[in-house]
Amino acid sequence: MKWSRKDLLDLESLSVEEITMLLDTARSFREVLDRPIKKVPILRGKTIVNMFFEPSTRTSSSFDMAAKRLMADTVNISPRTSAVTKGETLLDTARNLEAMRIDLVVIRHSSSGAPHFLAKRIKAGVVNAGDGQHAHPTQGLLDIFTMREKRGRIEGLKVLIVGDVTHSRVARSNIHGLKKLGAEVAVCGPSTLIPVGIEELGARVFHKIEEALEWADVVNILRLQLERQKKGLLPTLREYSRMFCVTEERLKAAKPDVTIMHPGPMNRGVEIDPRVADGARSVILDQVTNGVAVRMAALYLLSGGDAPLSEAIRKEA
Amino acid sequence: MTNQKAEGRRPSGRLVIRNCRIIDPLNKRDEAGDILMEDGRISALGKDIAPNGAEAVKGDGLVACPGLCDMHVHLRQPGREDEETVESGSRAAAAGGFTAVACMPNTQPVLDNRGMIELIRSLETPLCRVHPVGAISKGLEGLELAEIGDMAGAGAVAVSDDGRPLTDSNLMRRALDYCRMFGIPVVSHCEDKFLSADGSMNEGPLATRLGLRGIPSAAEASMAYRDCRLAALTGGRVHIAHVSCAETVEVVRQAKKQGVAVTAETCPHYFCLTEEAVVGYNEAARVNPPLRTKRDVEAIIGGLSDGTIDCIATDHAPHSLEEKEVEFDASPTGMIGLETALGLCWTHLVEKKVLTARQLVEKMSVNPRRILNLAGGSLEVGKESDLTLFDPNAEWTVDPEKFKSLSRNTPFAGWKLKGRAAMTVVGGLVVKVD
Ligand SMILES: [Zn+2]
Questions:
Q1: Of B33, B174, B180, B211, which one has the fewest beta carbons inside 10 Å?
Q2: How many A-B residue pairs are in contact by the CB < 8 A criterion?
Q3: Is B207 in Cβ contact with A113 (below 8 Å)?
Q4: pLDDT class for B339, splitting at 50, 70, 90?
């Protein structure tokens, strides 16, 4: 099977085969990352533009590193340096990029659908690095990749997502990707932060963290945006923490081999107990490493690379 | 007469439409006949009228009705003449078969005083009768009543803070009370802005999937309920604009049963489209109130057929392409509608047997005039000849490039429709002919 999509916009529109191809390709790159020389020249001559309309050190540096490991040329545009702040429209930006004959655009934007808007209008491939509260496909993939590495399988795995699901693109991409691969998914959080109709995406809803933790094989804890309290969605962070923080104490009721994940950056003590974050069951740092491998896979496949790629890499490395 | 030459001509005072189907609900007429117009007035109606030397138009297979009236349009003048003007909007109206429109006051500056109402009146062209709606509150700020009496005296046919609904219930009460003196309705854009907040589409599973913030139906229905209660309290007349959801239909239905002086309109997009039109972040489908679900469409259709919803208006909302073609949640709300309304209504209401042809004429011509106290709305000897002649069998494809409107923002591009205006006559002047 060959990768045939121009863009990576969300996991919802991907087939199981496509998701598996991305994960398998990421695995090959993950091995590369453990070598002393971590570069492979397979995207030499390609130009990738990283456009982050929303600040994100973590995701942007992960994409930047992925591109550099593949030896692509990268251009980083952030709102402060770009014309966007001067009122240039996304359509103008798209036309300019087109004129520069670039190969791939990685875009992070606060509006849901902005990458889709761009993808419809330019010939270059578009990778969604997070749009509004809609999707964050590479985060979803790296979470699933990490689960697959740690648990050996996705099918039948019980994955719990804890926190502000309403505003979370990470949650949506996790749910879509995991459901496609046969996992069971549940969400847990205050009712004001669980969106209408999440059940229709295939997720079960818990409001009691104790019950949810008892159910789960994997717990993916979302970052709580601290301004939610101001918007009237929460009384206080204190109350949130008392009701939903994943603590050592609460994990006593969980399965002993439960896997703890967090897409970062963490609010230690709010949604996650520092002892849990740094504990033996936490795979939070693996997620960061895997993120680079997954993004290498995405950039590679969207640039027209073949899967499996083990031979190609061996040859060129 | 099938040539462009006839357009804009006041036919030496004389024009006869031969053998058309005349639908005139107020006179309970629905029969084949001729209409003779002389000197801007209808001079004879009925079978085999002596042409008296008048230019003849073949009406076989066509329907003649009192000119269509759209009681909710945005003409953008003054302020955004790049998007629409009174004249371009009038051209679009004529092309769509409308002989009269009521234009909303959210221009720049706002139509909130006599001078602004007079300005709009002075911009009127022979193409279409343009009736300004004044603001309820000064500057649409929702703080103090505008000079409604003065505006009514200058020709404002209603007042509305369309787009910026009154959060202050007491001010709404005062507006309804005050307007009783002038016999004009308060047109209410029902939206609890605290509930709709930063939403950009209907709230529900689809919004959750698309990651777009939702606007619940309750944001509309709760204010519709408030305004019905305030109409009951004051004896004022409230008109609920652009009803989009099942809950509001029910609020209006109950209020009417209780004898409250409430009327309501919906728009073609609320029964031709559902929220599914947003999928793919289609900014052309972003509108306020938002497109709802299949269940809501069914309720709107129910409300149209049982009379709960009195009229169909377009909420014609022109936007420049540069402003509309942006990220979905940054795209301004609204779509244009004057040139697609008749086709959409005929195709989706009459062909589907939701409404009879006569009921459609009531909702697009008779009732809006009744609500706004406008003359016209019937075809009678001696009256000014404002009429629409349309071909219910004309099949056509919506092509925004052919619109007379200065704007192109429609979600209906490429739609195949049945039913189209063939001739529009305003005061005896042929302003559109196919
Ligand atoms: Zn409105």
A1: B180
A2: 71
A3: no
A4: very high
Is the Cβ pair A132, B212 closer than 8 Å?
yes
* Alpha-carbon distance B330 to nearest alpha carbon in chain A (angstroms): 8
Please indicate if any CB of chain A lies within 8 Å of the CB of B195: no
Q: How far is the CA of B368 from the centre of ligand 1 (A)?
A: 16
Residue B213 to residue B44: CA distance in whole angstroms: 57
Question: Smallest CA–CA separation between B91 and chain A, in Å?
Answer: 30
pLDDT at residue A90 in the model: 84
Please give the helix or strand (H or E) that residue B148 lies within, else none: helix B148-154
Pairing label, strands A259-261, A218-221: parallel
Cβ-proximal residues to A283 (8 Å cutoff; 6+ apart), any chain: A146, A150, A259, A260, A261
Window from A171-185, B9-23, B199-213 with minimum mean pLDDT: B9-23
The proportion of chain A whose per-residue pLDDT surpasses 70, expressed as a percent, equals: 93
Helix B294-305 to helix B246-257 angle (10° resolution) is 30
Share of chain A above pLDDT 90, in %: 77
Active site residue B315: yes
For A179-203, b/e burial (b = at least 16 CB within 10 A) is bbbebbbbbbbbeebbbeebeebeb
**Interstrand relation of B55-58 and A259-261 (parallel, antiparallel or unpaired):** unpaired
The tokens describing A46, both together, are 């390609």
**Would you state the torsion angle of the CA atoms of residues B8, B11, B12, B17, taken in this order, to the nearest 10 degrees?**
-170
CA of B288 to the centre of ligand 1 (A): 7
Q: Tell me the C-alpha distance between B348 and B127, whole Å.
A: 28
- State how far residue A194 is from chain B, nearest Cα, in angstroms: 10
With b meaning 16 or more CB within 10 Å and e meaning fewer, what string describes B325-355?
bbbbbbbbbbbbbbbbbbbbbbbbbbeeebb
pTM value is 0.93
Which of B355, B359, B339 is CA-nearest to residue B417?
B339
Distance from CA of A88 to the nearest CA of B (A): 11
Q: Given an 8 Å threshold on Cβ–Cβ distance, is B327 in contact with A111? A: yes
Which amino acid, one-letter code, is at B356? Answer: T
Q: Do B214 and A196 touch (CB under 8 A)?
A: yes
B365-387 pLDDT, tens digit per residue, is: 999 999 999 998 999 999 999 99
Could you give the domains of chain B?
6-64+381-433 (2.30.40.10), 67-372 (3.20.20.140)
Ligand 1 centroid – CA B191 distance (Å): 9
C-alpha distance from residue A168 to each of A163, A233, B199 (Å): 9, 14, 16
- What span, in angstroms and rounded, lies between the C-alpha atoms of A119 and A125? 7
B315, B329, B391, B434: which one is catalytic? B315
Q: What is the pLDDT of residues A208-247, one digit of tens each?
A: 999 999 999 999 999 998 877 778 899 999 999 999 999 9
Is B392:B176 a contact under the CB 8 Å cutoff? no
Residues of chain A found within 8 Å of residue B211, distances taken between Cβ atoms: 112-113, 131-135, 169, 172
Distance, in Å, from the CA atom of B327 to the CA atom of B353, rounded to the nearest integer, reads 38
- Residue B229: closest CA among B262, B277, B263, B272: B262
Tell me if B280 and A116 make a contact (CB, 8 A cut-off): yes
**Any CB–CB contact under 8 A between B280 and chain A?**
yes
